[in-house]
Design brief:
This protein has helices at 2-20, 29-60, 64-79, 86-105, 118-123. It is mainly α. The chain is elongated and about 65 Å long.
C-alpha cells in the first residue's frame, strides 16, 4: 500500500520539490497525462464518496442537510488554517472531522431525536415512533 501511495503521488512531490528549490522543471507529455488522469480519478471518486458518507451519516441519525453543513463548515475552517488565528481554525476543522468520523462508527439510529428545537431538528433526524403495545 505504501508503495502504491508513493507511486501515486510521486509526480506531485517532484513538482513540489522543484518549486521549493526554484528549479525550472520541464513538463513532459507523460507527466501532464498522468496529472490529468489522477485529477479525473479524484473527481470521479469524490461524488460516490460523498454519497456514501451522507448515507452513513443519515443511517446513524444525522440529517442529510446537517451533514452537508458540517462538511461545508469543515471546508471553510480548513481554508483559514494560516495566519494569526490558524491554530484555532485548525482545531475547529480537526474537531469537525473527528465528529464526522465518530458518527460513521455509530450504530443505526443512535443519534436520532424527539426534540422540537429547530436547531436540533436541522442536524438530527426524528426518531421513528415505536408502535405502542396494547396490554390485554
Amino acid at each position: 500500500m505504501l508503495i502504491l501511495m508513493i507511486v501515486w503521488f510521486m509526480p506531485f512531490f517532484a513538482l513540489l520539490f522543484a518549486q521549493a528549490a526554484k528549479v525550472q522543471l520541464k513538463m513532459s507529455g507523460a507527466l501532464v497525462l498522468y496529472i490529468i488522469v489522477i485529477g479525473l480519478l479524484g473527481v470521479l471518486t469524490f461524488i460516490p464518496t460523498l454519497a456514501l458518507s451522507v448515507r452513513r451519516y443519515r443511517d446513524a441519525g444525522l440529517n442529510g442537510r446537517g451533514a452537508v453543513v458540517l462538511w461545508l463548515l469543515n471546508g471553510f475552517a480548513s481554508r483559514f488554517t494560516s495566519g494569526n488565528q490558524g491554530r484555532a481554525w485548525t482545531l475547529i476543522s480537526a474537531l469537525i472531522g473527528l465528529t464526522l468520523f465518530i458518527i460513521t462508527l455509530l450504530k443505526t439510529d443512535t443519534i436520532t431525536t424527539n426534540s422540537d428545537n429547530p436547531l436540533v431538528a436541522f442536524f438530527l433526524r426524528k426518531s421513528a415512533s415505536q408502535p405502542k403495545r396494547s396490554e390485554h
